[in-house]
Amino acid sequence: MSYVDAEIASQPDCWREAALLAGAVADDLPRPGERVAVVGCGTSWFMAMAYAARREAAGQGETDAFQASEFPVGRRYDRLVAITRSGTTTEVTELLATLRDRVPTTVLVGDPASPAVELADAAVTMPFADERSVVQTRFATTALALLRAHLGDNIGALSADAEVAVRAPLPIDPTRVEQVTFLGRGWTVGLAHEAALKCREAATFWAEAYPAMDYRHGPISVAAPGRLVWAFGELPDGLPEDVAATGAAFVHSRTHGTRTVLGSWAAGRTPVDPMADLILAQRFAVALATSCGLDPDAPRHLTRSVVLT
Q: Where in the numbering of this chain does the SIS domain appear (predicted)?
């Protein structure tokens, strides 16, 4: 078993531990009504996107997500939250240094001894979710689980869905797919981007991601037999039928199981929370890699942390 396989499988336990931690660190996390910015790089940025949309939808206050390198330093926020597994990523550490004594900052980090811990005003350390793999899975989702717990989401139910997701059959055989597009709405747009990134990182596979409502404004032209559209969360009316008309396969987790349109074929029941569905997408990416003879623990051109000189 690869490192990334083991780390994907450990997510239910990590999410439960994050829910317990959320209560202990509540004073360091955004308060209702605060204007908040959330930053990260790569996978962490996509988790920031998901949390920002979910916090606003929960009525907790205006929340924006940025790549750390693109944060508008002249804009006023009540708090900045940075998500970084290693705590060494250059764009994050430089931003925390720039904002010192200007904006209260909290860092969610895997390594308690990392530079980001010293640079932020408050640190939420999660060494139990840190990873050996280059391809990031459990740390990012555990950070999102902690933030969702702070919003009042039921992480116990989410973790139960995740227990199913780590064992359920994949909704489609990756060897039958030549391209995949992931879609989301609201907070699940970030999950869609993350799922596509996993396919690109682990398997050097052609994967795209879009807001589901925007998909029919051009990107659907890529859909065809042998290709896959995988949607997270709420679906726009008519989308499954429009995808089916292209001949592409369609996967969507919903209350009564996973709907997969591939001719007349339908898959069995799988989890319903979109974060648990992301676990299936992570596993799909690893299966893509191994089916191509690639090592998902040694992705091409990537390192565990980007430190610029």
A: 25-157
pLDDT along the chain (309 residues), means of 10: 92 98 98 98 98 98 98 97 96 97 97 97 98 92 98 96 94 95 98 97 96 97 97 94 96 58 38 90 96 82 65
CA distance 34 to 41: 23
Q: How far apart are the first and last CA of the chain?
A: 34
Domains and CATH numbers, the chain: 3-160 (3.40.50.10490), 168-291 (3.40.50.10490)
CA 151 to chain centre: 17
Whether the model pTM is above 0.90:
yes
- Assess contact for 202 and 285: CB atoms under 8 A: yes
In b/e form, how buried is each residue of 173-212, taking b as 16+ CB within 10 angstroms?
Answer: ebeebebbbbbbbbbbbbbbbbbbbbbebbbebebbbbbb
Asked whether 192 and 251 are in contact (CB, 8 A), the reply is no
Both tokens of 270, joined, read 């799988």
